[in-house]
Amino acid sequence: MIRRLLARPTGVFAVVVLGLLVVLALVSLVWTPQDPFRTDPFRQWSGPSAAHWFGTDASGRDIASYLLAGTRTTVLVAVGSGFIASVVGIVLTAVGSLTARWVREGTAVLLDILVAFPTLLTAMLLTAVFGGSLGVVVVSVGLSFGVTIARVARGEIRRIARSDFVVAARASGVGPLGVLTRHLVPNAAPLFTVQLSLAMATAVLAEAGLSYLGYGAGSDTASWGSMLADLQTYVGVHPWSAAWPGAAIALVVAALSLLGDAVRDATDPRLTTGDRAAGSGGGGRPDGPAGGGPARGSAGGATDAPTGGSAVRGTAGGAPGSDATTTPGVTA
Amino acid sequence: MTDHDRQPHPGTGPRDGTGRHDRTAPPTGPDQRAGLEVRGLTVRAAGRTLLDDVTFTVPPGRRVGVIGASGSGKSMTSLALMGLEPTGAEVTGSIRLDGRELVGLPDRERAGTRGSGIGMVFQEPGTALDPLRRVGAQVAEPLRLHRGLDRRAARTAAVALADAVGLPDPVSLLRQYPHQLSGGQRQRICIAMAMAGSPAYLVADEPTTALDVTTEARILDLFEHLSTERGTGMLFVTHDLAVLSRIADTAVVLDAGRVVEEGPVRTLLDAPRHPATVALVDAARATARRTP
Q1: A273 is a domain residue
Q2: Does B209 touch chain A (CB under 8 A)?
Q3: Is the domain of A93 the same as that of A181?
Q4: Strand, coil or helix: what is B45?
Q5: How many domains, chain A?
Q6: What is the pTM of this model?
């Protein structure tokens, strides 16, 4: 699977960025170029140098060191929110799709109500009770996304449960547990993966936003969000300083979002295994380049590129259809 | 089309409404099973009657057709036989599997008869297989369930089964995913899945509708072969009279959820009596693929 993941440019990008993030977070535990919290009134706004790679800020803190220390917060928030969102999402999905009719209908209504409840409001409520901390960010984002995931996954599970292949499996004697573990979970997993990666990406953004607003990390915790909040005050004077945490946030969020798509594509056999019939029979794809010769090189990229659901389905639908003699649907 | 020199079977003509069905013993002799007997099967859902007092019998080793226009209740009949009617649907009447009543059985016991008592083949081989699982695993699953085989034995049995349904190079073919197979191959896999539990009866819901004519003929041969070889009684749901005349000995005609006519296929096609049957036969004659 890793090999298939790395066969895609977006997969490589996501793995490299996120791998780097984790490594840097681990490194920051033992070493940073400077003390990220040491202020130096004589070194305000120094430009990039050997001692201060990205320069210093208004209070003379080393931006590179602070950025590095902030990776810990980012990793913590992404993983923590992802974990809470998964647990909440799985439990609510199960209750909302596998239980007695009135329970799952009730859950559906509850989910619709909860989805309308803004993350920010949850965070503010929790802050009012427990005070601002990273925990508040993690819990509020995790809860919100758990609900969102459950709402989407519930519909997906219900759809899969009604699909032909589940009915066919039941007709051949497979029981409820077998249907759940062998058909429902594997078929809903791609959607779950994509949603989860989006949740983690949004968690990073939300942490930045909440810390920016003062509901997140305290001043004793390095955070890209609070850093951005500090630096943006001076953006007219020192525009480049704010670009560092901004770029870091953007990179990580993009990598997380793309990771979900890349993982989904790497685990879908319709995209990762060749079309046996077309491969041996030589019947070209109906909408593909005829002959396949020189265009094939770029077409390989086009087939593999995870450009979203519609393109994916187009490829999947086209592959079996290329079998010359026995195409489902030709009788119409 | 092949000849229609089938065993004589007394026709009952248009139904007289008494719900009696003139059943004959299977002509081949030794099979003493009672057959798949459906009596007064009625399905209601959301205030509508989808099936109304449907009665017919599938004798062991025989092939009975169910024909009717879209919405006449053909598919509901097959789903109700499997106990897979939509949730909320109310099923009354009687379905007896070689004498054993299935209607009203607890879910768990009913599930036990699926695949081993009655198997089912679906219309769309493209969607009746899980796209994320290798077809071998999908054939092996019912083998493990019904025959209690372990993983390895099930794999061997799946290969034998794939071979029995006429799949070439079964060992490597079973390692494929559904999208890698052709429509005909997929339907053979579905048939293998349905036969895995060695069901006494097989319900086939328009199993060749999604296939081209050549593949259709081969799949029909396979059904014929399986029912003769294994004595599997088959209920063959179709709207295609050419298919019907080819595969079935007798047939029932459904219209708006009711059985309106039944009898030997030959009689039904040559001398249809009920307007619904007449309409089906006329429509079939009007198309290029004529029935004899």
Answers
A1: no
A2: yes
A3: yes
A4: strand
A5: 2
A6: 0.74
